[in-house]
Amino acid sequence: MNTLGLSLMLKMGCICGKESINIDNRNFYIRSRLGEGGFSYVDLIEEVRTHKLFALKRITCHSKDEERVAMQEVEIMRTFHHSNIVPLEAHCMKPVGHYSKTLDITSEVFIVMPYYKRGSIQDKIGYLAVKSEKMVEDKLWRMFLGICHGVRALHSFNPPYAHRDLKPANIMIADDETPVLMDLGSAAKARVDVRNLQEARALQDTAEERCSMLYRAPELFNVDSNANIDERTDIWSLGCVLYAMAFLESPFEKAYQRGDSIALASLGRNVKFPENSSFSKSVEDTILYLMTVNVMERPFIDQVISRVDSITQASENRV
């Protein structure tokens, strides 16, 4: 069914009877479709008792392994309690029948989380692009610092987690403009010691499946058979996110549109900045600092936060 048809059906449901669902002994009405991804889709839902709006992520699983991956996202959300990481409101797993004799029972995992009516940073970027405007630099740094604090919460856990799919579409904006990391389905233990071709291929396949190409760290495009991967994959992505927030597109967007290899573009750090930028040199310098190709020379998140704090402090002192 196309989006228009679904919208009409949902509007009719308001008259003829809303579709409802019970999760964790709480009843919700389905209001509308918010978005779809490769592995799930998200609906706007309303709690029957409180009339409060939430977002419902629905993940369809066709095997026990897919169920495990889906429930891993639930566990990660349950583990972290931080203002810059999306909280878990409720969840459940519902079996929906047998898929085939060779596969386990098909199920759906339902994850209820807050509804952010301001949308994502990607939505903000689109809005600014249409108006031919840019984010004010002070606001840019303030929002980016909030993103970094969310990343630090993941990286500071023992053992550290990496988000592995940091991009503007996966960062929501709360009512007070706090940035909130979401879509933790790609998150995983950050430190991986790759010791053979089979392990390298497995990690590379997972990255291709779960990590958005335009924000993916170079070491995840062609994983070496003797590699040490750590949480600094997220630092590269943070550099791409900062670029997108400042210049309203991924640093590799033009290469992608030309059909160039993003793997080669990232490995060569083929990053070009617009001429006559309205931002200070600190923005470009920080982007390049984060997007250090050699992971052993790339900074950790505490170094990044210290650098951004120094930049914002210097800016305040000038004022």
Protein described:
The protein has helices spanning 3-16, 64-79, 121-130, 137-155, 197-210, 233-247, 253-258, 262-267, 281-290, 301-318, and strands spanning 20-23, 26-36, 40-47, 53-61, 90-98, 105-114, 161-162, 171-173, 179-181, 188-189, 192-194, 227-229. Helix 4 packs antiparallel against helix 6, helix 4 packs antiparallel against helix 10 (301-318) and helix 6 runs antiparallel to helix 9. The chain is 40% helix and 21% strand. It contains ten helices and twelve strands. A hairpin with a 3-residue loop joins strand 2 and strand 3. The protein is globular, with a radius of gyration of 21 Å. By secondary structure, the protein is an alpha+beta fold. The protein folds into two domains: 3-114, 2-Layer Sandwich (Phosphorylase Kinase, domain 1), CATH 3.30.200.20; 121-318, Orthogonal Bundle (Transferase(Phosphotransferase), domain 1), CATH 1.10.510.10. 33% of the residues are buried.
